[in-house]
Design a protein that fits this description.
- The chain is α+β, with helices and mostly antiparallel strands and 165 residues long.
- It has one domain: Gcn5-related N-acetyltransferase (GNAT) (Aminopeptidase).
- It contains 5 helices and 6 strands.
- Helix 1 (6-20) crosses helix 3 (35-47).
- It is globular and about 40 Å long.
- The chain starts with 5 loop residues before the first helix and ends with a strand.
């Protein structure tokens, strides 16, 4: 991902949230999300990315960004240096099911292998059944770890998945 890709990535991320998390995350939180605010956040993340963080984009035949993934070392302490984490994977909602997510995930796994990761972890909202099915089809397995994030005062649980590379 380059600086020039940030507006497209932000548009995909915000529309992806509003599509995938409708009925899961409070409407007030989703309504407050804007592409403009996300562009600023993505630019800050891109500039301040810690070592080992990689942002990948998928482009169509016209060169337009249609998907984005971000991976890197596991964010919490005490984990093996060989453990990576998929922080985000989003596809333009109108193209969901077209194979873009799988292509991006294959690229994530290739990059993770190059970076020396032999285990990948990711978090999925418990009620995001579509994403859970997607990751399970590729071989990710829920490992029993659960955490919750707060969205406008509502605690939303997430489940952790793992894949041995």
């Amino acid at each position: 991902m380059t600086e020039a890709d940030v507006p497209a990535v932000s548009a995909i991320r915000v529309t992806g949230w509003k599509s995938a998390y409708a009925g899961i995350v409070p409407r007030s939180f989703l309504d407050d999300m804007t592409v403009e605010a996300d562009i600023q956040q993505r630019r800050q993340h891109l500039k301040g990315a810690r070592e080992g963080v990689t942002n990948l984009v998928a482009v169509d035949l016209r060169g337009w960004v249609v998907g984005w993934a971000c991976l890197g070392p596991l964010g919490c302490g005490g984990a093996s240096a060989a453990t990576g984490e998929l922080y985000a994977l989003y596809v333009q909602p109108s193209l969901t099911g077209a194979g873009i997510g799988r292509i991006l995930l294959d690229a994530v796994h290739a990059r993770a292998h190059t970076d020396g990761f032999d285990l990948m972890l990711l978090w999925v909202l418990v009620d995001n059944s579509g994403a859970r099915r997607f990751y399970e089809r590729v071989g990710y397995v829920a490992d029993g770890a659960v955490q919750a994030d707060d969205y406008d005062g509502v605690s939303i649980p997430e489940v952790r998945y793992r894949l041995q590379l």
